[in-house]
Specification:
Structural class: alpha/beta
Radius of gyration: 19 Å
Distance between the termini: 14 Å
Largest sheet: 5 strands, parallel
Oligomer: single chain
Number of helices: 13
Order of helices and strands: HEHEHEHEHEHEHEHEHHEHHH
Strand content: 5-15%
Strand order of the largest sheet: 7-6-5-8-9
């Protein structure tokens, strides 16, 4: 490894060097190959892992559970109604209790400060499964998917199209810049990322040979992109803003025409999921214009969304093995 990650928490990619991220991706590839070959790991044998979920989850929960079991650990799911977390007991006190009982803690919820406090007080590695600010395990899987597709990350261009100030836009900017990529945030000006974060990421890119572009011009933003990426237009907890977001973002829906506008025939489509791409969900039936991507793109030959979803397992496993394993 470029650096010994044993005992470290994984809270946001900005805390890690390009070499450390690259090593996690290499380990992810090895663990994926092992799983497909039927090789069972024991790097986490005897470990007990607490999985704290304030927010609902499909991929993050299933990936952590599968990764734990694959490597011999016991995962314990703790929903928001299962513990006194932040209600009758402070986060710091809960962290100190769980740290005495578990070898590692995953947190998926709202506040970044909560996961930072868990890491500060628990005494064990803490892994961020998503907060309102960052989503590092997802972007590690995104980088792995692009690396599998194109062979190397440095010099690739990724255009994130949609809500440019959410956790995915934040983390993609950092992750891509760290790996020497050209990352574009293509969004209406009202949904641009925070200026101070953009300044920080541009400083990272200056050291790695990457580039950062923030634009509301779709044509310019997607030109030459190796990957188009989007997310739902209203994040969890923002459902009341759906009509407003549809009005702001309808011109940013990823379509076959937008894929063609990259000028490349090898552009792939990425999405962290869940996605609104047809009208087979309750919200999509209620808001017919909510779909951030055409079904023909989502289901098309250049879509890699389910490769990404699978790679959540392998990258999460790599993070746990590197920070906690034997």
């Amino acid at each position: 490894m470029a650096g010994n990650l044993k005992g470290r928490s994984f809270l946001k990619l900005i805390d890690f060097t390009p070499g450390e991220i690259g090593d996690l991706l290499s380990l992810s590839a090895t663990l994926k190959a092992n799983k497909r070959a039927g090789v069972t790991g024991r790097a986490l044998a005897g470990k007990n892992i607490a999985l704290i979920f304030e927010k609902a989850s499909t991929r993050t929960r299933c990936a952590f559970v599968t990764a734990c079991v694959d490597e011999g650990a016991h995962p314990e799911y703790l929903g928001k109604g299962d513990i006194q977390f932040g209600k009758k007991e402070t986060v710091a006190d809960t962290a100190r209790v769980l740290g005495r009982m578990f070898d590692g803690i995953q947190f998926r919820g709202f506040s970044q400060q909560v996961v930072e406090t868990l890491a500060q007080y628990s005494g064990v590695p803490v892994w961020n499964g998503l907060t309102d600010d960052w989503h590092p395990t997802q972007v590690l899987a995104d980088l792995m998917t692009m690396q599998e597709e194109f062979g190397a990350l440095k010099g690739l261009s990724l255009a994130y199209v949609g809500d440019g100030r959410n956790n995915m836009a934040n983390e993609l900017m950092v992750g891509c810049a760290k790996m020497g990529m050209h990352v574009r945030i293509v969004a209406p000006k009202a949904l641009f990322p925070k200026a101070e974060l953009v300044e920080t990421v541009r400083a990272i890119a200056a050291q790695t040979g990457g580039q950062v572009t923030i634009t509301d011009d779709v044509a310019a933003g997607v030109a030459g992109a190796h990957a188009l990426y989007t997310d739902v237009w209203a994040s969890m907890g923002e459902e009341a803003k759906i009509p407003e977001r549809i009005a702001q973002l309808k011109a940013y829906k990823i379509t076959r025409a937008m894929m063609a506008a990259t000028g490349r025939d090898d552009t792939i489509f990425l999405h962290c999921l869940p996605a609104f791409h047809n009208h087979d969900t309750d919200l999509a039936r209620q808001f017919p214009d909510i779909c951030e991507v055409e079904d023909e793109v989502f289901e098309g030959p250049r879509s890699r969304v389910f490769d990404e979803a699978e790679n959540r397992v392998h990258t999460i496993k790599a993070v746990m093995v590197a920070t906690l394993g034997r």
